[in-house]
Amino acid sequence: MPDQYRVAIVGSGPAGLSAAARAAALGMSHILLEKTDHLSDTIYKYQKGKHVMATPSNLVLRSDIDFDAGKREFILDTWDTQIADNKVNVRLNSEVTAISGETGSFQIELKDGETIQAEAVVMAIGTQGNPNKLRCPGADLPLIQYQLDDPGEYFDEHITVVGSGDAGIENALGLAADPAQRNVVTILNRRADFARAKAANVALLEEAEKDGRISVRRETSPAEVRENELVLETRDGQETIKCDRIIARTGSQPPRGFVEGCGIEFTGEDRGAFPKLSPSFETTQSGIHVIGALAGYPLIKHCMNQGYDVIEFLNGNQELKPADEPILADKFAALPGNRSVDEWLEIFRNNITILRELSPLQMRELMLDSDVAAFSAGEIIFVRNDPGSSMFAIAEGSVLVEVNPDDPSVTVPIEQGSIFGEVGLISGRRRGSTIRAAEPVVTLELTRNAALKLLATVPSANRAVNQITIERQLLQMFGAGLTSQDVAELVQSAETVEVRAGQNVIEEGGDDKDIYVIQQGSMIVEKSLGGKPIFLSYLPAGSYFGEMAVIDHSKRTATVKAAIKSEVVKFPGEAFTRLLDRNPKLRERAKADMASRRKVNSFVEERKESFSSAVDMYSETAKFLIDNGIGEATDVLLIDETLCVGCDNCEKACADSHEGLSRLDREAGRTYAHIHVPTSCRHCEHPHCMADCPPNAIKRGPDGEVFIDDTCIGCGNCQRNCPYGVIRMDPKPPKKPSLFSWLLFGAGPGPGEASYSWRKTTAEKRGLEQAKLAIKCDMCAGIEGGPACVRACPTGAAIRVAPEKFLTFTKLAEDVD
């Protein structure tokens, strides 16, 4: 006869151990099943010497076993001792292969053929056994491993860590900790932000990067694995680095087949979806509860609290509230209606589209990192040009967007369940509009880190935000009185595609009929003449292309390729045609755009013989500018060498406008033909420098300028991340003494601009060598008349332009005529 227990706990990670310890303390008949020959395999597999964090710090720990931040080995020893002392009924080497039955009578089959019976089952198996494998050519080569046991085992190796969560960061730090090992350590993050990692780990990684111990590659992913080499897909194209070993820490997935085989439903079809759970952790299979990482709660303290709570629920304590209840109750206290925490959680989850597939447990975790607020009708939520990188969601009510800054009465509504502020989240720009409550409103404000983590870990939320963003981009771009219903078919059929630098999106002569919208990055349009690709135009983010072949059913007349790493949204041509059929005004606008582009093509075809050399020159010039960053610029300084007299007025004016520190180096930079690109900020659409600024000191102004505010801590991350060398770290400049002080006491460098060497020497004498700040062009924001460098140029050689205004074939046509 099989053994029978009140509860069987599957998995001895932090959640399972805490559940078993609570059952033992209550005298509840239980068994803890672990498939390995040791407890807590999750922590056991951490790298040796790893410091384990106990976050969140404001959350009370409920458990009959202890846990505090400390070394892996100490924590494991503590748990082994306390589990034995508490007389927990543990069975090692007991892998569960199937669970069947119903509440009160479950049969748990083990790999060795034995069966265990239990009235209830607590599943705490985690996800560590199902790592996400690399998906690129060469992913089966032996230099790839998915776990790191002991960083001290590796010497004199070029090691690349793939993955930007806590595990990846901790592995990279461990491999670079001892200089005597002489490892060259690189970590890849396919995004700009480390959204999945704890803030403390990110800070340690940034410190290691600053010290040169680790190379951090952002917006980079593996393209191909070769013997002793790794091909990287970067923002600017492919790059090959030496690589002896790859540590892939790319996350893991729930063992879905096994879980579903137990009768448990998931929240969605995505690979990363979690089981559906009640507030008491019960699944859709009555009597089976899920806790820990499998429930979507990876933090150890959360897991241990769940282990304690689930046994209390099974023991009849239905009044028990989660450990985070006081924190959330305080957070919701200012909201109207006198509702409970559970009621508010359900309102937020059910009413907000992007949250509908989150479990109650995931909702609680999200709320700990977010803010809630109530607004009266007419009350302003934020004002145009306010700084802010958070995203808002509407739980109750609706808001109005003031689309015309000169007439606040012109508004567009955003209804309950939708989001706003996502532009600041994605681009870092200041608020684009004033938003006020149309009626009493309850909002959820997700901090940048909370929002990015949500989008990175919950596919349904990412999909919903992407659809809302696409819809708004279509409505803004096409106008013509379109509504959400008009573009619904296009939005539903949209496919977001990442395109590497230089990759063709459409090819001249092709017969495909899709249209595209540029969501991030930029494109260049080329046409083949005499076997040579000739530059026609530049398309920034927010442009669309490909409609010509859709409207007149022709072949592609030009090639469109990515100037930099970009993201485009592809729409089926048939859906676009139906939209045009329903909206004559939009059809007329599209035809006008098409006519303008055909005019350029015809112009080239008709005159290609008469100005082929000019076409070649202009095309090569355009290629040079694209290669030098104009493809991602929003404002770039160019100098016409045929007009420049070398007076350096531009540099002097820049210094005079910025405390004696010029943001411009006229002589530096590259030149092609008569066009010179000096070392000065391009104010990129998606700035490299902004991607990793710990105090968020780098911001975008109302006119698109990227600037560094007074909260700069001098970490140097922006300087390292800028590919164009336009940021430097300078000692904080001392104030230049007055002319009177110089005449009487010889103080200071004398009349005129204080030289850089004087500022640096004086700063060092004052002991300010460490007080360095990041210095870069801010487009003279706030200074009347615009950029001083342009105003001070006596010959008009210096110009600042947006790339779409400079890189057009119209200019060539005017020159040739």
From TrEMBL:
Gene Ontology MF terms: 4 iron, 4 sulfur cluster binding; metal ion binding
Keyword Flavoprotein: no
SUPFAM superfamilies in alphabetical order: 4Fe-4S ferredoxins, cAMP-binding domain-like, FAD/NAD(P)-binding domain
SMART domains noted in UniProt: cNMP (SM00100)
Keyword Iron-sulfur: yes
Ranges for domain Cyclic nucleotide-binding: 354-472, 478-597
Domain named 4Fe-4S ferredoxin-type: residues: 635-667, 671-703, 704-732, 771-804
Entry keyword set: 4Fe-4S, Electron transport, Iron, Iron-sulfur, Metal-binding, Transport
PANTHER family according to UniProt: DIMETHYLSULFOXIDE REDUCTASE CHAIN B, OXIDOREDUCTASE
Protein's recorded name: Cyclic nucleotide-binding domain-containing protein
Organism: Pontixanthobacter luteolus
